[in-house]
Amino acid sequence: MTACSDEPAIESNAPAQPASAPAPHLHALPWLKRTDPTDADVWLASREAGRDIDPLDPAVSQMHRRLEVAAQRFRDHPRMIANRAVQLEAMLKEKGIDEHAPNIIETLCEVPGDRRYIESFSSLTQQYYNLRLEGLDKAKAVEALRKLEDPA
Predict the structure, then answer these.
(1) Are 74 and 124 in contact (CB under 8 A)?
(2) Cβ(80)–Cβ(121) under 8 Å?
(3) Cβ distance 40 to 32 under 8 Å?
(4) Contact predicate 62/68, CB 8 Å
(5) In angstroms, rounded to a whole number, what is the distance separating the alpha carbons of residues 88 and 85?
(6) Contacts of 105 (CB under 8 A, 6+ apart)
(7) What are the tens digits of pLDDT across the range 6-45?
């Protein structure tokens, strides 16, 4: 007599299951979580390059300067500024307006000029989005936002 078991037989040609899913490429991340170890400047530079780039790449330094200026002008952290700019980029793209996140950051930094803005970057992105949907181009949207801040 042979022993029988209720356990199913293991097929030797069954495909192996991966232990864990591979991490997504940095440049393909839709946003940075608060807990992500990646710096916002590396992420944005990678997104712009369309590939993951080295943190020592000059494009990262350029992005760092953009975020640093924005953080001085607004009360938001660079990571939040980067996330909001990418979010606005996607929202505008859905409406047929092609603006990249780094350019959005530069454009919105024009609103307060060298001063600190009274509202957050996040608030300004929503106002900018609304103005762009009304048909204003970048320059006219910035001008309208400046008038809202300083109506004099």
Answers:
(1) yes
(2) yes
(3) yes
(4) no
(5) 5
(6) 66, 67, 70, 81, 82, 85
(7) 443 444 444 444 444 445 688 888 889 988 889 999 999 9
107 is written with which tokens?
């454009």
Which residue is associated with the tokens 């440049």? 27
DSSP string over the chain = -----SSPPPPTTSPPPPSSPPPPPGGG-SS--TT--S-HHHHHHHHHHTS---TTSHHHHHHHHHHHHHHHHSSS-HHHHHHHHHHHHHHHHHTT----HHHHHHHHHTTTTTSPPSS-HHHHHHHHHHHHHTT--HHHHHHHHHHHH---
Model pTM score: 0.80
Under 8 Å CB-to-CB from 34, ≥6 apart: which residues?
79
